[in-house]
Write a structure and sequence with these properties.
The chain is an all-alpha fold and about 300 residues long. The chain has two domains: about 15-170, no CATH class; about 170-308, no CATH class. The chain has helices spanning about 20-55, 70-90, 90-115, 125-145, 165-170, 175-225, 235-250, 255-275, 285-295, 295-305, and strands spanning about 1-5, 10, 60, 65. The chain has a two-stranded antiparallel ribbon. A two-stranded antiparallel sheet has the order 3-4. Helix 1 (about 20-55) runs antiparallel to helix 7 (about 235-250) and helix 3 (about 90-115) runs antiparallel to helix 4 (about 125-145). The longest helix is centred in the middle third of the chain and has 53 residues, at about 175-225. The radius of gyration is 26 Å and the shape is elongated. The protein starts with a strand and ends with a helix. The model is unreliable at about 1-10 (pLDDT under 50).
Length: about 300
């Protein structure tokens, strides 16, 4: 944490000021996400590759019976089965989602504690004990559905409350408010706006790719219909490629996330205006609680699932 010169010594609070438990959990979530995404990508690519040998007009035989080119398809489909088996054993997607939920929950609780957000407002007796209890209660719920606490795997887990969190909590209301708005609320608004742009570009890219591949498959089918071409093999490859692109686009949920992130950003904008203008110190704990609810992964996921 760093201090900004000024009469109230405004402070900067970043992820680095969060406890080690957050960093362990966040790192596991990032690694598991990368593994889950790469596994799905490999499976889709292999499924498309498996259709290619049937579309090729030439053959290469070994020993008079073994078809070398067709063996590529065998290897591709074998690869799909192998990666599916490994994905089932490793459960990377589950670890990704559980650890992401845990990391964001820890981060949210730390922010609430540090800036006197509910249930850790100014009048709370023994706020550190209340924080530890509430945090453990929430993490216990995640353990019930399969989350593995990284503290069980390493002896160096650090404390739940960092010096920076205590320092921010001890600051005046105006300092806590400024820090929270700038380093949490505005930071989240920027993240959601950036993700919208990424999702829009991805939606355009994959929609265009699907349209081109489908049009080529249609052309191939028309040529076969009017006896210009003699095989549906190329049509099958193009269809498989289009289906893979469609599956990838659906898995990444670009389109529903655009709407969900836009709604969250609008809510955060309204909350920022309220915090900067009419919000009183008495109303502050509840406003922080509501802001943290808005930025929770569960809220974003709910919005994405209910977009038309």
């Amino acid at each position: 944490m760093t201090a900004i010169p000024g009469p109230l010594r405004s402070m900067v609070f970043r992820n680095a000021d969060l406890p080690e438990l957050f960093h362990h959990t966040d790192a596991i979530a990032v690694t598991s996400q990368r593994e889950a995404v790469n596994t799905t990508r490999v499976q889709l690519v292999l499924l498309v590759i498996g259709t290619v040998p049937a579309a090729l007009p030439w053959h290469a035989e070994l020993g008079g019976t073994f078809q070398l080119i067709d063996a590529v398809g065998v290897l591709a489909y074998t690869g799909v089965l192998l990666t599916t088996y490994l994905a089932t054993r490793r459960r990377a997607k589950s670890h990704w989602q559980l650890n992401r939920s845990a990391a964001e929950f820890i981060k949210s609780m730390c922010w609430r504690y540090s800036v006197h957000g509910s249930p850790f407002d100014t009048d709370t007796l023994h706020p550190e004990a209340v924080f530890a209890n509430r945090l453990e209660e929430g993490l216990q719920e995640l353990r019930k559905v399969g989350w593995t606490d990284p503290r069980d795997l390493t002896a160096d887990s650090g404390g739940l409350i960092t010096d920076s969190m205590r320092e921010l909590r001890n600051r005046a209301f105006t300092v806590r408010k400024e820090t929270y708005i700038r380093d949490r609320l505005i930071e989240q608004r920027t993240w959601y706006r950036r993700r919208q742009e990424v999702s829009r570009r991805a939606t355009l890219l994959w929609s265009s790719t699907i349209a081109v591949l489908t049009a080529l498959a249609l052309l191939s089918a028309l040529l076969r219909t009017f006896s210009v071409a003699q095989s549906f093999a190329l049509t099958g490859v193009l269809s498989a490629a289009a289906a893979a692109c469609l599956a990838w686009n659906e898995i990444r949920r670009h389109h529903p996330l655009i709407s969900a992130h836009s709604l969250v950003e609008d809510d955060l904008e309204a909350m920022q205006v309220a915090m900067e203008t009419t919000l009183t110190e008495r109303q502050w704990p509840r406003a922080v609680f509501e802001t943290e609810r808005i930025v929770s992964p569960q809220h974003t996921d709910w919005l994405a699932r209910h977009q038309m």
